[in-house]
Amino acid sequence: MTTSALPPLTRKDFQTDQEVRWCPGCGDYAILAAVQSVFPELGIRRENFVIVSGIGCSSRFPYYMNTFGFHSIHGRAPAVASGIKIAHPELEVWIATGDGDALAIGGNHTIHLLRRNVGIKVLLFNNRIYGLTKGQYSPTSEFHKVTKSTPFGSPDRPFNPVSLAIGAESTFVARSVDIFQAHLKETLKAAAAHKGSAFVEILQNCNIFNDGAWVNLTEKDARSEQVIQLEHGKPLIFGKNRDKGIRRKSDGDIEVVQLGNGISESDLIVHDAHHPRPSYAFLLSHMEHRPGFPTPIGLFRAWDDLPRYEDVINEQVQEIIAKKGPGDLGKLLRAGDTWEVK
Amino acid sequence: MIEQAVIRFAGDSGDGMQVTGSQFTNTVALYGNDIATFPDYPAEIRAPAGTVPGVSGFQLNFSSGEVHTPGDAVDALIAMNPAALKVNIGDLKANGILIVNSDSFKETDLRKAHLDANPLEDHSLDKFRVFPVELQRLTRTSLQHLGLDAKAMDRCKNFFALGMCYWLYNRSMDPTVRWIDDKFKKKPLLAEANQLALKAGYSYCEATEVFQTSYEIPPAQLSPGVYRNLSGNQALALGFVTAAQKAGLKLFLGSYPITPASDILHELSQYKNFGVLTFQAEDEIAAITSAIGASYAGKLSITTTSGPGMALKTEALGLAVMTELPLVICDIQRGGPSTGLPTKTEQADLLQALFGRNSEAPIPVLAAATPADCFWVAVEASRIALKYMVPVIILSDGYLANGAEPWRIPEIEEIPGIPVHFATDSNGFHPYKRNPETLARPWAIPGTPGLEHRIGGLEKQDVTGNINYEPLNHENMVRIRAAKIDAITQDVPNVMPNGDPDGDLLIVSWGSTFGSITQSVKAQREKGRKIGHLHLRYLNPLPANVGDILKRYKNVLVPELNMGQLLWVLRAKYLVPAIGLNKIQGRPFKQSELDQKIEEVLGL
Question: If DSSP codes are grouped into helix, strand and coil, which group holds residue A16?
């Protein structure tokens, strides 16, 4: 690990000589571009980045980043990454994963990474389809969705990745969209600044197997009418004319209100991303399932008061060394009752 | 004065039989006897009290001579209830000593054990020397002044029985008294109660002359040195700490609890002052993949499991093969398939270890022969993993894991260092540029400037490590990965059979059957039979001279606690007409079973 003065890095420093093999028009290109432009700005040496992935289109990501990289096996990136981070807490470990990789085969590892608060950034590319296996439904595909493996419609109810991450009490949960480049970069920077686990769902198009995956949010006008941008300390307002908002009801639930007619901005919820309890963030994550409510993007939750797992586990080692002294192998082997044969 | 004795403690799984047996073991080992133990306990933590499924046993063979097995038949049986008697009486020698807790032979106790008649009264035990002792009443009497409730007093009755055994075999109570002090440091009243029960048991024998005679087994003539008593799982843990120190690396264990491997996790989690990182993962897959991650980041990484967990780890084993990272995987085998017999021993994961992965994914496999040998196998497996940049599988089993034997503690200097080299020079660096001798690729850990590179499970080009799907490249890489394992043969010492170097019969074995086969071969050779015994520690790659040795004997017999897995390998690889002796009962071989087969093969 080097700690000397940081050489200036540019986007080019993070590009590899490998030919990028995603389909032309894939949302992954936009995410790669955003990551390559954000990494040089983080003040971290290139050799200290490790990108870990599982299997799927998104998991080819490490090959295109000129950092240390580990393309592991399906669903297991969180466990591989945890091993790296525990072994070497100073490393900046990011995971590139998809909706199938992180939420189906690897669902168990995802929730355990988040509940442990390992200081790893998880970028979940959600295109609501299995791309690399050519078009089966994923854990985020819509109910009744017709795919290759569900010709009569999917019988599964989908996961909401943000709700799942908040349910696992992830200390940082955000959402952005592949083509909202400026927003995506800001979100990535916020994730990088977070010490503990950071979970970022990136809504992404698959123009081959699920074209228009998020068109209801990304087409003209939809961004302002169907999307609400969460900003800490600001009221929850949306709409092309910024004339709609989210208000708390007396029973604790929330409702969409039209501003005017006696309802003003001051009646709206002021977004608090730093609340220690996850219930408010969960309420926000769930509103997209309700008729008339917008889909939130931005920072749902960033609460950095929990210690990082890798620090806890390594500090425990240091504490025991301080208490007992560094291990003496000769003594260890001779521990307990011994006897001598002459 | 006798040379040797086999004693078995049997009772409910809540009766403290494992503690009692371990204490007796420790005491006789400290005295200098050679020992072998066989703890045998149910998978259920507390099966209904007094029932047959709840019986827990601990057998110990201790001797003034060399001991290789816990013994076939028992000289003295301590049975705490009718169920324990029912399960174990078949193993007691005629005229053997039987101590029973007569307080637990009431009608309800008999019913729980599904016994129609009271064996203490129906003359079914006439061929044994039966000593009915009111363990419950006598223990309560000796503790009544302490003010404990009946339940707490009854919990001390195993120490009363232990005290009796110490008198019977002329052993000092001091080591157990010390152990009780330490164990109940924070509960002085319980310490006093257990010590009183222990001493009361001893005094009871002295005062009542219940046994009339006691026995004396002089110390064994072991080679000089300092000894301790060690179980297989403890030995593995100590071996890994030692290997990490010898390699100058920190140890990382990724593990998920599973019987009978969990004790390695428990043990290593205590050694944090050696810098040991233990990670109790969310499942078996995360256990191995986290270890792969830690290995990538430069630790000596290990994962510990048993058969079912091994099955879950197979895809990740392939990843370790493909990414050519050092890793040690311990499979503490148990009866299977599926959940099988969690607490019973078996050797049926050999073929899984050798071949249980998709495609061509060779992995070196080592097997420990005795509990103490687990230490040396852990060191050796770590050395191979680090030198060749490969995953290595260690096979142990429930019998070795929980069994114990005296271990001569090595001097630290006796253990050779394990050289490790991390790549640092970016000049001409390629992630798959190999050491021409070992074919190992460089270990280039994250954080090293200029060595940024990507690895993964996809097929790659040699040298550059770039993804490559070309047909000839794939064949080349498959052959390189195989050649790398073959190259380890240069590090595997040639094997020499024990006993006759040629003759009528060669017995080939691996793993925990070493002890019983050694004992049997010794006995058979004393009868003038020309027998050799070849025990294999390296199962992949096999030592270079195995084929030659197999040809020197008229018959080859392969006894295994499985359906014939090593037998299958030897027949396939060396085209020898070897035959098997196969036992799949969750228990080790008895010497009599081996003797019978040997005599059958020799036509006697």
Answer: coil
